[in-house]
Amino acid sequence: MSGTSNQMLRRIAMAAAGTTLSLALALPAAAAEYGRGVTYERLVNADIDATNWITVWQNYAAHRYSRLNQINRDNVGDLRLMFAHSLGGMADIGARSGPDNQVTPLVDGGIMYVNDGWGAAYAIDVRNPLLGQFVWNQPYEVDHEGRTSRNRGGALWGDMYISATSDTRGVAVNTGTGEVVWDVYLDSARADERLDRFTAGPLALEDRILFQNTRNRGWLAAVDATDGSLLWRTYTIPAPNEPGGETWADDLGLWETGAGGLWTTGSYDPDLELVYWGTGQPSPTYDPEMRPGDNLYTEALIAIDINDGAIDWFFQYIPNSSWDYDENGVHFLNTLEIDGQSTNVVQHFARNGFFYTFDRKTGDFINGATGQYVNELNWTAGLDPKTGKPVEYNPSLAVQTYIPATRTLRGDGFERACPTWHGGVSMQPPALNPIKQIAYAVGTEGCFTQSGYVEPDPNNAQRIAEGNRARWIGREYTSDLYYGSITATDATTGQIVAKHNTDIEIRSGVTATAGGIVFTALVEGAFVAYHDETLEEIWRFHVGTPLKGPPVVYAAAGKQYVAFVSSARHTHPINWDGLEYSSTVWVFGL
Questions:
Q1: 536, 563 in Cβ contact below 8 A?
Q2: For residues 271 and 267, what is the distance between their CA atoms, to the nearest angstrom?
Q3: Average pLDDT over residues 325-338
Q4: Which of 163, 283, 287, 390 is most buried (most C-beta within 10 Å)?
Q5: pLDDT higher than threshold 50 for residue 260
């Protein structure tokens, strides 16, 4: 890829930063033509073509910001349901969790592409605002045994829609016919045991597609876009003879099942040819004494070279963690004025409760010490303003102490930590309004209390056979404070602009628009619109089924629409329940 051509594309995109619906709908007729294909140039310039939503986070920078403004604060009260379409994926889903469909639909030329929870693909013609018709569905067989029905979307590339299935396959289908173009298993070395899991949508680049593994021992892999053949695979847990291997100082070989999974799709800088991914917690999750050392590269941000999969730089948020603060939340790209210079950065609402900013090229920590965005936080007294590490971190210790009153070790009684272990921002995608420089996040607020292990489980052979869910003995836990929130943060300073608490957790995501609105969806079934500066609620519609899918914004036949996919209730404790789950596409318009 040419850096010069990438910079030219970027300048074109920046010049079009003010695109509104009226301009977007004035594009040539060919721009809305069905089946024209998704090229690398279109993906780099996704902001220009505001009528479509062609990659999971709207653009490579993961802004989830629409420059369409036909739906705005003045008329959002007139928003109404246009149609709803039920998807498949309701078989073998389990009575408790249901179809865990967290898909971001993609829209190109009036055709919507979407997955069900198992990863099977569908195309829906959304050009008729009152109907919506299935063009095709590709119900390729997926192995359900021992798996959950969880999917977060697909990728468009050329004339293909590419999905990641829950049984670790990458499947490309023709966007015009729904016929399978390629179908490959992408398991790691223990393919016969099928320990890996896919939940996140793939990322399409110039000539390769990136897939990520959720569990066991996390990895990111690139495949050839033409046939799905493997190009490289990079593990998030290093082997003993690799850089970082020394940070797993146990004698049980825990690195083999060290977790560090990748749950969400990454962001991408075309000029640097780097992708940015957050990694999950170490395993065993709540027993840091069993895995002495920093446990790289868990709970970290890693920047990976797309050409060979090499880790260019990394930042670990909490070495030797024990709170299950996965950092799979999306890391979005931005450009800020810092000390009078335009600086390309990567920013992140961390699950641990802080909002971080890093130099995109070097990984240098820029800010975060003043960026607490959750209401309750007690696991650390703060972040070192120079390093970004918790102030209690001691690199000379094999097992960190942090704040003992919040950090449970073996044999300890109940300790209370905030935020809750499934709180903050986890997989819920944030949004950035690059014009106002306001970043938005939705998530779960609160605290949890847990006791320590009575004894460790030394049976690593069983752990390898059964995946990374380590056996813990004697641990008890509870969520003693639990609710949701949406937060608006000044992206330049990290300071909170506005905050709105909700009675129930938010497992969806947030989308911002040029109409002065941010949209999200609640687990209790409400689709909600907020004022983008004050977070005052200005509209809601209850669909009567749990919601986890993040909203997307697009235009068809001259009108703007908002769409999302319904799902299951969350399996963690919640304050309110009682809805039946579903797997349905919902489309709203004026």
A1: no
A2: 13
A3: 95
A4: 163
A5: yes
* Cβ-proximal residues to 460 (8 Å cutoff; 6+ apart), any chain: 252, 253, 254, 256, 257
Say what percent of the chain tops pLDDT 70: 85
Cα–Cα dist 362/73, whole Å: 40
Rounded Cα–Cα distance for residues 414 and 336 (Å): 43
Cα–Cα distance measured from residue 306 to residue 324, given in angstroms and rounded to the nearest whole number: 28
| pTM value > 0.70 | yes
Asked if 119 and 132 touch (Cβ cutoff 8 Å), the reply is no
Torsion of CA 536, 539, 540, 541, to 10 degrees: -170
Residue 11 phi, psi dihedral angles, 5° rounding: -65, -40
Alpha carbon 393 to its chain centroid, in Å, reads 27
User: For the domain bounded by 3-589, which CATH number is listed?
Assistant: 2.140.10.10
Closest to 51 (Cα-Cα) out of 18, 21, 15: 21
Task: Inform me whether the pLDDT recorded for 465 exceeds 70.
Answer: no
Q: What is the pLDDT of residues 554-577, one digit of tens each?
A: 999 999 999 999 887 665 655 556
**Side-chain-facing half-sphere of 405: CA atoms under 13 Å:** 5
Where along the chain do its domains lie?
A: 3-589
Report the length, in residues, of the chain. 590
Ramachandran assignment for 429, one of left (phi > 0), alpha (psi -120 to 50 degrees), beta (any other): beta
Of residues 52, 88, 83, the one with CA closest to residue 67: 52
Give the span between the Cα atoms of 428 and 437, in whole angstroms: 20
Contacts made by residues 568-572, CB under 8 angstroms, sequence distance 24+:
568/93, 568/97, 568/98, 568/99, 568/100, 568/101, 569/97, 569/98, 569/523, 570/505, 570/507, 570/523, 570/546, 571/96, 571/97, 572/422, 572/479, 572/505
